[in-house]
Specification:
By secondary structure, the chain is of the alpha/beta class. The protein has two domains: 139 residues, Rossmann fold; 175 residues, P-loop containing nucleotide triphosphate hydrolases (Rossmann fold), CATH 3.40.50. It contains 13 helices and nine strands. The strands form two sheets. A five-stranded parallel beta sheet has the order 3-2-1-4-5, with helices on both faces. A four-stranded parallel beta sheet has the order 7-6-8-9, sandwiched between helices. Strand 4, helix 4 and strand 5 form a beta-alpha-beta unit. The radius of gyration is 25 Å and the shape is elongated.
C-alpha cells in the first residue's frame, strides 16, 4: 500500500528547515506531498514559491501542489476554519494522508483533521535555526539556510563592463576575493578563443554568447553568496555586437534589457593604457571611447543602476570599485 506524507506551508521563502521536513517525509513515506498555499495579500508571489519548491525537491517521491486561494489563514478569522481547510486539502489531495510533517505546533490539529499522524521535525529549530520571516527580514544574515533556487531572488550582482584593457577581469577577481568567492567569468571571451579567434563574426555568434553567459551565470548564482561579481554581462555583449557587426538585433536588445534588473554596473572608463594580450580588437582611442559611450547609452536606456570609474591610475580605480562593493554590502 502506498503511504503518503504531507507538508503544508506558505514557504515564503523556502528554507533549509522546510527541506529537512520534506526529506524526512520522503524517507518515511512512498509519496511526499508539499502543499504550497498562497493568496493575493502576500509579499512573495505564490507561483514563484511553488516553482522554488519544485526546483528544490527533484528526487523521486516528491510531489509539489500549489493552491492559490483567499481562504481564512487562522482559526480566529472564521468559525468554519477547519472545515474549509479540510475541504481544500481533500480537493487537492484526495488520497488518504498517513503522516503530516512540520515543525509548527499546528501539525497535531491538522493531522487529526485529515485522519493522519503528526510527525514533528526539529520543533525547537536546533538543526535548522531559521524561519521564513527571518529570511525576509535579512536574507544575507541567514544565507546558509537559503536554498540554491531561492538565492537569485535575494542576490545582488556587481557587474564590471567597459572597453578592452580597462581592467574588468582583474578587478572582478580582486572584488570577488574580498567576498571569498570567484567571479562569474566572461563567456564571450572563451567563445572567441574556441570558435572565432577574433574574426568572421556573424549575428548567430552573439545569439549564442548572450544566453550562454546568462545560463552560466545563473548556474553559478545558485552556489553563490549574497553578492555576485560578474565580469561583463549581456549589455557588454550587446555593444560587442554593435562594434563588430555594425548593429544589434532586437532580440539581443530585449535579452540585454531583461538581464539588467537587480544589478549594479561599474562602467570602467577607457583612460587606462592599452595592453594587447593577443585577443583584443580595438587599440584606437576613438574606438575605445565609442565602446564606452555605447555602454553608457544602453545602461541609461535600460534605466540601470550604474557608476563610471574613470581614474587612469590602477590604485585609484581599484579603490573606487571597492567603495562601490562596500556600499552594496552595507546599503544606507
Amino acid at each position: 500500500m502506498t503511504t503518503h506524507g504531507f507538508l503544508l506551508g506558505k514557504f515564503m521563502p523556502p528554507h533549509s528547515g522546510h527541506l529537512l521536513c520534506a526529506e524526512v517525509g520522503r524517507r518515511l513515506c512512498d509519496v511526499m506531498t508539499v502543499f504550497v498555499c498562497s493568496h493575493d495579500a502576500e509579499p512573495i508571489d505564490g507561483h514563484l514559491r511553488a516553482e522554488w519548491m519544485r526546483k528544490c525537491l527533484t528526487a523521486k517521491g516528491y510531489r509539489v501542489i500549489h493552491m492559490h486561494r483567499d481562504i481564512p489563514q487562522t482559526p480566529e478569522e472564521h468559525p468554519e476554519f477547519w472545515p474549509i481547510w479540510r475541504a481544500a486539502i481533500a480537493e487537492h489531495h484526495p488520497e488518504p494522508i498517513d503522516w503530516v510533517l512540520g515543525s509548527e505546533g499546528y501539525i497535531h490539529r491538522l493531522a487529526r483533521e485529515v485522519g493522519a499522524r503528526p510527525f514533528a521535525v526539529d520543533p525547537d529549530r536546533r538543526i535548522a535555526p531559521v524561519s521564513a520571516s527571518a529570511i525576509r527580514a535579512d536574507a544575507w544574515a541567514n544565507w546558509d539556510h537559503v536554498p540554491g533556487p531561492v538565492r537569485p531572488h535575494y542576490q545582488r550582482r556587481l557587474v564590471l563592463v567597459g572597453a578592452e584593457s580597462t581592467g574588468k577581469t582583474t578587478l572582478a577577481e580582486a572584488l570577488a576575493a574580498r567576498l571569498d568567492s570567484q567571479p562569474i567569468p566572461e563567456y564571450g571571451r572563451d567563445y572567441d578563443a574556441l570558435f572565432r579567434h577574433g574574426q568572421d563574426w556573424v549575428p548567430a555568434d552573439f545569439e549564442t554568447i548572450m544566453p550562454g553567459h546568462m545560463a552560466f551565470a545563473d548556474a553559478l548564482a545558485h552556489r553563490g553568496g549574497p553578492i555576485l561579481i560578474e565580469d561583463t554581462d549581456p549589455v557588454q555583449t550587446l555593444v560587442w555586437a554593435e562594434m563588430l557587426l555594425g548593429h544589434a538585433t532586437e532580440a539581443l536588445v530585449a535579452k540585454a534589457r531583461a538581464a539588467v534588473p537587480g544589478k549594479t554596473y561599474l562602467l570602467l572608463g577607457h583612460s587606462t593604457p592599452w595592453h594587447d594580450d593577443g585577443t583584443r580588437h580595438f587599440a584606437e582611442t576613438e574606438r575605445r571611447a565609442q565602446f564606452t559611450d555605447r555602454l553608457a547609452a544602453w545602461l541609461d536606456q535600460f534605466d540601470a543602476d550604474w557608476h563610471l570609474i574613470d581614474a587612469p591610475d590602477w590604485t585609484a580605480r581599484t579603490a573606487a570599485a571597492r567603495d562601490r562593493l562596500q556600499a552594496l554590502k552595507h546599503p544606507e
